[in-house]
Amino acid sequence: MKRTLIKTIALCSLFTCSAAVMADQSDYKLMVIEQETAPVQLEESFNSCALNVKSKNYEQAEAICTKAIALLKQSDGPRMKVRELTSFALSNRGVSRMMTNNDAAGISDFYEAVQIADSVMVSHNLARAKENLSL
């Protein structure tokens, strides 16, 4: 009973978490979960992904972003928030892939992210990638 209550509280609070951006207007944008409101494992994966990209540990960042995406797919939190966070995680993974010159996979992540939940930040990353690839 206690575990179910904790899980319910964690999932409800996922709805209230917000994302912050780490970057300036000219670079790719990385999204992080600002508050400690998401389940700990998800928050750690999500934020560690962005931190590793920022630290130029791109291969590790890609693996961690992939883990965050998998955790979100298993989440039974509010559908709209899960979609938004999945979109952000895909965008973060796309940045890590672009930085390792895995352009096809990176641009694919950006397109998928925009289709899931279009946001200004994700659209910026897609536009930036297209510009870099001269598409």
Question: Can you offer a commentary on this structure?
Answer:
InterPro entries: TPR-like_helical_dom_sf. Keywords: Signal. The protein has helices at 2-16, 40-54, 58-74, 79-99, 103-116, 120-133; strands spanning 19-22, 30-33. Strands 1-2 form a two-stranded antiparallel ribbon. 71% of the residues lie in helices and 6% in strands. Mean pLDDT is 82; it is low at 1-18. The chain has one domain (2-133): Alpha Horseshoe (Serine Threonine Protein Phosphatase 5, Tetratricopeptide repeat), CATH 1.25.40. It has six helices and two strands; from the N terminus they run αββααααα. Helix 4 (79-99) runs parallel beside helix 6 (120-133). With 135 residues, it is mainly alpha-helical.
Number of domains: 1
At the first level of CATH, the class is: Mainly Alpha
H/E topology pattern: HEEHHHHH
Strand content: 5-15%
- Which segments are poorly predicted (pLDDT under 50) over 5 or more consecutive residues? 1-18
Major β-sheet profile: 2 strands, antiparallel
Choose one word for the global shape.
globular
Radius of gyration using CA atoms only: 15 Å
What is the mean predicted local confidence, pLDDT?
A: 82
Give the helix proportion (percent range). Answer: over 70%
Number of beta strands: 2
In the CATH scheme, what's the topology name?
Serine Threonine Protein Phosphatase 5, Tetratricopeptide repeat
Head-to-tail CA distance between termini: 54 Å
Q: Number of helix segments?
A: 6
Structural class label: mainly alpha
Order of strands in the sheet with most strands: 1-2
CATH architecture: Alpha Horseshoe
Protein name: Orphan protein
Keywords: Signal
Signal peptide: 1-23
InterPro entries: TPR-like_helical_dom_sf (IPR011990)
